[in-house]
């Protein structure tokens, strides 16, 4: 499937994946206590790319102890905020200097298009680091003119301080491994915390590289640690009493386990979880724009996007045009490895996940649903699923209700905007939604009624570091981005002075 334009992997990336990886603790690669190793695969070929440590509870304890010692020694929070900002900006510069290698490494390990790896995974992440670095110097409390009446004659002045919360555990999924690690890392560091990042066992490589670049930028040893591993490692981290805050991104079932473990220690936590996100297209849509929006929202990163559009509700007057237009494009999309910039659909992250998505599709076929695109096997090495468009789907079909996390669109007609609203909201999830219309009155009537943490209008999926992101309902607890990210990594202390 390669063509002349296929990216040639750099020598630096080839050398990196061949390393004998340990755990990144206390500013260096350390030998692990665990003797188990995890194989890391190239999703485009199914070949083993690298092996990493499958850390156990002893390894996790060591990483947390190092992060705690660095926090208690104030090697990071004790710096002037402007110095923390400068180091984080230097980290952004290093990411930029190594952008192509980081993008190639992510594509090799995750399977995604090199175009997305360059522009989003690395490019947007650099923007995010620079935005968050600026927060280091802008964390403020309040002064309070309090009215405490006794003892008579005493006056009081109170103020609040925003203090770094302590040692953070950042638990990361496999769909945007570098970007989501940084979503946790950089606001935590801007706030003065130390951190242990646990990448997904499928995609651990870029986190290990990030730790080296952060050290090079001047983040002191012990402030940013990486433990690689699977469920045991994640569970040990979530249950560790030395962790002050867990910032978790992943599936809703795992998020519930993390929240339950956290509460036992009163560890603070935020959960960014799954989604089954609707796109609602009203009668006045520009059909071409709506089709492009559904494609971008649904097939971006092979649909392995928590906020992906996967339920497409289209007003009956435009339904056929949109459904057929989507199907024509989906049927013509080219499949190929992420290193081929011309390939439009790339492999899913793992054989296991490909099989899960195939099972969702097989159930929809067994239910007799109407496939306009996809639903056929792929004769390529690697973990591919064809872009799939399923039409006229009844609202109670599993494919409309379950998070598939693959390139699968279910299209449903509606007659009235309020009917579309009811269908869109009738889901346990509430991460994101999009509305497609220029009918301002109807849009502004619907926006407040949509149960989702983000509502896009005439677009689906753009994010900005300053725009809060997180879920209603089973899609999570808490918000990332903007001032909310910083808020989540600080404790508020009230100080009351009698005078
Ligand atoms: P997952 O829940 O299986 O795993 C997420 C992380 O948790 C991994 O690092 C995993 O090793 C770790 N983990 C597993 N068991 C654990 C435990 N008991 N305690 C602590 N950690 C544990 O999710 P995934 O399959 O890696 O990612 C896909 C899911 O992530 C989808 O549901 C998707 O919607 C969600 N996601 C959400 C967002 C968001 O911002 N809301 C973003 C990306 C992905």
Q: Would you kindly provide a written description of the structure presented here, covering whatever features stand out?
A:
- The longest helix has 22 residues, at about 115-135.
- The protein folds into two domains: about 10-275 and about 475-495, 3-Layer(aba) Sandwich (Aldehyde Dehydrogenase, Chain A, domain 1), CATH 3.40.605; about 275-470, Aldehyde Dehydrogenase, Chain A, domain 2.
- The radius of gyration is 24 Å and the shape is globular.
- It starts with 10 loop residues before the first helix and ends with a strand.
- The protein contains 16 helices and 22 strands.
- The strands form six sheets. A seven-stranded mixed sheet has the order 14-15-16-13-12-18-19.
- Strand 15 (about 390), helix 13 and strand 16 form a beta-alpha-beta unit.
- It has about 500 residues and is of the alpha/beta class.
- Nicotinamide-adenine-dinucleotide binds near residues 171, 173, 254, 405 and 471.
Features:
globular, binds nicotinamide-adenine-dinucleotide, 6-stranded mixed beta sheet, alpha/beta, Aldehyde Dehydrogenase, Chain A, domain 1, single chain, 2 domains, 499 residues, Aldehyde Dehydrogenase, Chain A, domain 2, 39% helix, 16 helices
Topology of this protein?
Layout: H1 11-17, E1 23-25, E2 28-30, E3 37-42, E4 47-53, H2 57-72, H3 81-97, H4 99-110, H5 114-135, E5 143-144, E6 156-164, E7 167-171, H6 177-190, E8 194-198, H7 205-217, E9 224-226, H8 231-238, E10 245-249, H9 252-264, E11 268-272, E12 277-281, H10 287-299, E13 309-315, H11 316-332, H12 351-366, E14 370-373, E15 388-391, H13 398-401, E16 408-414, H14 417-425, E17 429-430, E18 432-436, H15 440-446, E19 454-457, E20 472-473, E21 476-477, H16 482-488, E22 490-498
Parallel strand pairs: 7-8, 7-10, 8-9, 10-11, 12-13, 12-18, 13-16, 15-16, 18-19
Antiparallel strand pairs: 1-2, 3-4, 5-6, 6-22, 11-21, 14-15, 17-20
The structure holds nicotinamide-adenine-dinucleotide.
């Amino acid at each position: 499937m390669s063509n002349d334009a296929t990216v040639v992997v750099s020598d630096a990336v080839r050398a990196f994946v061949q390393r004998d990886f340990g755990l990144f603790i206390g500013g260096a690669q350390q030998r692990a206590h665990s003797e188990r190793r995890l194989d890391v695969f190239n999703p485009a070929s199914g070949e083993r790319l690298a092996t990493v440590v499958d850390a156990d509870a002893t390894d996790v304890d060591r990483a947390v102890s190092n992060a705690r010692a660095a926090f208690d020694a104030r090697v990071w929070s004790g710096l002037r905020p402007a110095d923390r900002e400068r180091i984080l900006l230097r980290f952004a510069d290093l990411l930029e200097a190594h952008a192509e290698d980081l993008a190639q490494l992510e594509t090799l390990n995750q399977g995604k298009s090199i175009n997305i790896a360059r522009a989003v995974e690395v490019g947007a992440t650099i923007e995010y680091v620079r935005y968050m670095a600026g927060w280091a110097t802008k964390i403020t409390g309040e002064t309070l003119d309090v009215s405490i009446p006794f003892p008579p004659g005493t006056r009081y002045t109170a103020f609040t301080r925003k203090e770094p919360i302590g040692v953070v555990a950042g638990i990361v999924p496999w769909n945007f491994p570098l970007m989501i690690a940084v979503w946790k890392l950089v606001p935590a560091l801007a706030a003065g915390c130390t951190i242990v990042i646990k990448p997904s066992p499928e995609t651990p490589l870029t986190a290990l590289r990030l730790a080296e670049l952060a050290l090079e930028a001047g983040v002191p040893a012990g402030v940013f640690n990486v433990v690689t591993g699977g469920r045991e490692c994640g569970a040990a981290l979530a249950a560790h009493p030395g962790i002050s805050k867990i910032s978790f991104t992943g599936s809703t079932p795992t998020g519930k386990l993390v929240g339950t473990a956290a509460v036992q220690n009163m560890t603070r936590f935020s959960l960014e979880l799954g989604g089954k996100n609707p796109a609602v297209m009203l009668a006045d849509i520009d059909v071409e724009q709506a089709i492009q929006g559904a494609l971008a929202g649904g097939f971006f990163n092979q649909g392995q996007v928590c906020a992906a559009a996967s339920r497409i509700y289209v007003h009956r007057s435009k339904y056929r045009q949109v459904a057929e237009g989507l199907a024509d494009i989906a049927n013509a999309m080219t499949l190929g490895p992420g290193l081929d910039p011309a390939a439009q659909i790339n492999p899913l992250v793992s054989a296991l996940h490909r099989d899960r998505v195939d099972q969702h599709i097989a159930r929809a076929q067994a239910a007799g649903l109407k496939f306009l695109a996809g639903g056929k096997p792929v004769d390529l090495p690697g973990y591919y699923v064809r872009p799939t468009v399923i039409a006229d789907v009844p609202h109670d079909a599993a494919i409309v209700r379950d998070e598939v996390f693959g390139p699968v669109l279910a299209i449903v007609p509606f007659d009235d905007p309020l009917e579309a609203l009811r269908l869109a909201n009738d889901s346990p999830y509430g991460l994101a939604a999009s509305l497609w219309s220029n009918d301002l009155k109807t849009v502004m009537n619907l926006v407040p009624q949509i149960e989702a943490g983000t509502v896009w209008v005439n677009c689906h999926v753009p994010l900005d570091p300053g725009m809060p992101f997180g879920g209603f309902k089973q899609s999570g607890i808490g918000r990332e981005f903007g001032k909310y990210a910083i808020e989540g990594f600080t404790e508020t202390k009230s100080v009351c002075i009698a005078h």
